[in-house]
Amino acid sequence: METINSLSSNDIYTITAGIIMGTIARLVTLKVDFRQIPTYPSAYFNNIVFGLIASALGAIAIPAILAEDFTAITFLTLAVTQFREFRTAERESLAKLENTEYTKRGDAYIDGISKTYESRYYISLVTAVFTVLVIKLTGLTDLRLGISLGVAAGFLIMFLCNRFTKGKSVGQICEVKAGEILVQGSELYVDGVFVTNYLGTDLSREMFKREGLAVVLEPRDESCRVTLENFGQRQAVLFEAVSALGVKKFYYMNRDFQTGKVLIALVPIINDSDKLIKAARETPLLENSRKAKRTMNTNFGGANV
Asked: Which of 33, 112, 180, 266 has its CA 20 to 30 A from that of 236?
């Protein structure tokens, strides 16, 4: 209460600028892409409100500390705990919806999505903190100039955070192209590579011959192959491919043990080969599947360790 009473009009303007910048940071990361996250108006509203709260906590931290009200640190600690709850809630929500999807996302993909949600609130908090911090550090008598510098710093932090947290996609580690489907009896081949022998009915064979689409993912090198052959990563690619086009009846995935190619074939609702390639190419690389080349070259157990 004493802190509130000690706030000047300049402090209020400064805090407001921090809250606005932090909320903008959340709005920038709040977008619907081909993965359709979030998917409905209430999700937009929830994320914006939570972003506003994160921004407010970050914006009041600096003035509170300068006023020697160190309970602000406690509030920041509570905020981190709450953000972790957001991650847990998102993970549980997606896990419960697994049985309603065409195919499952998989635990690895769900974990990556939930961690991304958590990190976006940190971006809001950090943007608000640095916006207010710069305004305070400049100490200019012209408040408008100080706020302008703070806003510029906020946009810079926003940009750096987005660059730092932006992950890679499957298209950066492998070549993605359309595959040629061949049906021989009950067997399905894509670019001459066996995929499945489950086409035992005339309906399945005719549907693949008439409407089937396929995509081939070929890793660029051995370290990329290790990443692509991770089951969670392949499941994520299959999920995005199937979700982007829908499925009428069948979908299959297999890999070539000799070359490391991953092959996906399906009978989609939307027959669009370019969209299928884009969905596969833009699938995020999952945290648990990424293998940096520097770790691949480590001499595990060698004499030089």
From this structure: 180
Q: Which token pair is 187?
A: 């067997």
Domain hosting residue 235, numbered range: 171-290
Tokens of 241: 């491919």
Long-range residue pairs from 164-168, CB within 8 A, at least 24 positions apart, any chain? 165/116, 165/119, 165/123, 167/284, 167/285, 167/287, 168/284, 168/285, 168/290
Q: Is 219 helix (H, G, I), strand (E, B) or coil?
A: strand
Is residue 197 located within the same domain as residue 275?
yes
Q: Are residues 110 and 179 in the same domain?
A: no
Sequence length of the chain is 305
Task: Give the DSSP H/E element, type plus range, for residue 196.
Answer: strand 193-196
- Residue 87 domain-assigned? yes
Q: Are 157 and 122 in contact (CB under 8 A)?
A: no
**In terms of domains, do 180 and 150 share one?**
no
Tell me the pLDDT tens digit for each residue of 15-28.
899 999 999 988 88
Share of the chain above pLDDT 90, in %: 28
Helices 71-96, 41-66: crossing angle, 10 deg rounding? 160
Token pair belonging to 7: 């706030």
Residue in the block written with tokens 């990190």: 119
Residue 90 domain-assigned (yes or no) = yes
Structural domain count, the chain: 2
In which residue ranges of the chain is pLDDT below 50?
Answer: 1-4, 33-36, 292, 294-296, 298-305
Pair (146, 286) in one structural domain: no
